[in-house]
Amino acid sequence: MIYQKKTGLGRGLKALLDDSDLPDSERHQLSNDNSSLGSISFVRIDQVQVNPFQPRTEFDAEALKELSDSIRLQGLIQPITVRQAGQNSYQLISGERRLRASKLAGLTEIPAYVRTANDQQMLEMALIENIQRENLNAIEVALSFQRMIDECNLKQEELGDRVSKNRSTVTNYLRLLKLPPVIQASIRDKKISMGHARALISVEDSDKQLYIYQEIIKNGLSVRKVEDLVRQIQTIGKDKKKSKSGAISFQYMKIQDDLASKFSTNVKLKLGDKGKGSIEINFMSDDDLTRILEMLDW
């Protein structure tokens, strides 16, 4: 079977696959170990080690089985990418899903691009290849971005260039990692969408973030309703800053809002010193007062 090398790898990944920046001694040593570097070769699957820099943490079992069945019938269309790790030994750079599916299909050999790459280049290749394929969840993308910044010494602008995303997109992904762990887990598990997450990261207080998250889960709020809720909470926060006295905490504000909903009218909590305060319930007419009193079992 003839495999043709694809060129649509993206500027970042394509540049990383160029080994011209490697030290001469390293490139020469690898070239002596295997004359097939840079070409497509068949390598034994049991000689391929998994990529220690792999950003993906989950692989869908059903999707792997479907790919495995396809490989069993038609063969592997797109080669994996590996680097020489030693004589008759390779380390996976990209294509772990294809490698796993090929093992399930019972293949003993697999087509592979054999590349030269140091650890940093290997990390960048693995991260960029996965990000560009858009097969990571949002938290995995965020963690990948953070690793590239920390381990590859990249600035956010440089990172954006490597993965073909603007700086604001990179920043929004990185901000997901500042959300409370329970919210990050829900994003990872796709219980809430990236749209919900974008609304949540615009809220600075973690208690407020958790309250909004609980409302999303409990009431199945749409992204638009979450955005409305965020605006309401932020407006309340601004009003509190403007007030010189009688400001109440978010928890008390939640009680005030719940009471207003219960009585279908405006309710105000007024706090004094030493935990003292009062509740003011507005009514619009005698009938409205009667309605409220009946609700209070007056």
UniProtKB/TrEMBL annotation:
<dbReference type="InterPro" id="IPR004437">
    <property type="entry name" value="ParB/RepB/Spo0J"/>
</dbReference>
<dbReference type="Pfam" id="PF02195">
    <property type="entry name" value="ParB_N"/>
</dbReference>
<dbReference type="GO" id="GO:0005694">
    <property type="term" value="C:chromosome"/>
</dbReference>
<dbReference type="InterPro" id="IPR050336">
    <property type="entry name" value="Chromosome_partition/occlusion"/>
</dbReference>
<protein>
    <submittedName>
        <fullName>Chromosome partitioning protein, ParB family</fullName>
    </submittedName>
</protein>
<keyword id="KW-0238">DNA-binding</keyword>
<dbReference type="GO" id="GO:0003677">
    <property type="term" value="F:DNA binding"/>
</dbReference>
<comment type="similarity">
    <text>Belongs to the ParB family.</text>
</comment>
<dbReference type="Pfam" id="PF23552">
    <property type="entry name" value="ParB_C"/>
</dbReference>
<dbReference type="GO" id="GO:0007059">
    <property type="term" value="P:chromosome segregation"/>
</dbReference>
<dbReference type="Pfam" id="PF17762">
    <property type="entry name" value="HTH_ParB"/>
</dbReference>
<dbReference type="InterPro" id="IPR036086">
    <property type="entry name" value="ParB/Sulfiredoxin_sf"/>
</dbReference>
<dbReference type="InterPro" id="IPR057240">
    <property type="entry name" value="ParB_dimer_C"/>
</dbReference>
<feature type="domain" description="ParB-like N-terminal">
    <location>
        <begin position="41"/>
        <end position="131"/>
    </location>
</feature>
<dbReference type="InterPro" id="IPR041468">
    <property type="entry name" value="HTH_ParB/Spo0J"/>
</dbReference>
<dbReference type="InterPro" id="IPR003115">
    <property type="entry name" value="ParB_N"/>
</dbReference>
<keyword id="KW-0159">Chromosome partition</keyword>
